[in-house]
Structure formats: C-alpha cells, structure tokens
Amino acid sequence: MILPIVAYGDPVLKVKAKDIPEDYPKLNELIANMFETMYNAYGVGLAAPQIGLPIRMFLVDTSPFADDEELTEEEQKELKDFKKIFINAHIIEEEGEEWAFNEGCLSIPDVREDVYRQPKITMTYQDENFNTYTETFEGLIARVIQHEYDHIDGILFTDKLSSFKKRLLKSRLNNISKGKINVDYKMRFPNQKKRR
C-alpha cells in the first residue's frame, strides 16, 4: 500500500525517533508498504518519520545510482546490489574529509542543494529479523544512509545548509509546508488532518 509522505513543516520530521521492540506490530507489512511508497516516489531511501512514524527505521535501495557512467564498474555493481532495512540504527563513527553532494528529499520536493558529509561511517543496526550488525559503509552508500539516519534523529538536509541558503529557500519551504506544490506522489501536508 502506498502511504502519503509527510511534507516539510510537519513536527514528526523534527522528532528524535525511538528504538522499536521486536514485537512491533505488523512490521513486515510496514516494511513492504515503505518500499512500495519509496519506489512510487522514485526515492533511494525512506525513513519512518517521513510516513509519520517516529520510530528508528529506514530503508535504502541505491540501485538508481548504478547508472552513473562516471562510476567504476565495481562501484556501479555495489550500488546496484545495495538494498537494506535499518532498524534501531546508531552511528558509532564518521570519518574522512567532508565532501559535497547534491541532495534532495521526498519530504522536501523540488529542492536540491549541496550537502557536506564525511565519506565513511561505522554503525550498528538491526535487520527486519532483529539480527544485530556493526558495519562500515563508504561513498554514495554512506551518504544515502547518513541522509536517512538524519531523519530518525529529527534532522533534515536543509538544516545542514548555511543561513544564507536557508533564507534563499524560505519561501519555497513555506510553500511546501502549505501544500502549494505539485508532486506526482501522495503527500500529507502539515495543515491536513491525519486520515486513518
């Protein structure tokens, strides 16, 4: 089932999400719905707060980046095959020299800006069966994970921009929060009532 994506301005996007227990109700159904929602919106990642749930879960599928001809064959293969669910994730370490990449967000449509992030992260997380892993990720995969991880910490990519950039974007962000934007996927705007 395709779920509405919560738009910029909704308070749930600014909440530090809570860990989820192993008996979380209908988890597999939620994961399936999140993947369907993400693919419907042509996203490469989606975090639970973006569908209105303040829980520490996000999913990533970097296969759309695999078509980039500037990447090596090995990088393309790695991106093509990377699809993961991250539950109760916690970044332990970020390292390396920050690099810029043009980011966008399904909750902030039609806004893209360069964001600086470190290229290598080490984190702990659980999969959908609550098996625990500690892994290191690098490059574009690390970046997508960092973007989604920020969502479960209540941080948006626009929070990482300079105050000058934020001023330039202010009216566009206000329009998004008011629903004054055309998107080709289902969204829920802050002034709309929740539908159950």
Automatic annotation (TrEMBL):
Alphabetized Pfam families for the sequence: Pep_deformylase (PF01327)
Entries under InterPro entries matching the protein: Peptide_deformylase, Peptide_deformylase_sf
CC cofactor: Fe(2+)
Active site positions, chain numbering: E148
Catalytic activity as recorded in UniProt: N-terminal N-formyl-L-methionyl-[peptide] + H2O = N-terminal L-methionyl-[peptide] + formate
Tagged with keyword Protein biosynthesis: yes
Catalytic activity, EC: 3.5.1.88
Residues holding Fe cation: C105, H147, H151
Name the record gives this protein: Peptide deformylase
Taxonomy of the source species: Bacteria, Pseudomonadati, Bacteroidota, Flavobacteriia, Flavobacteriales
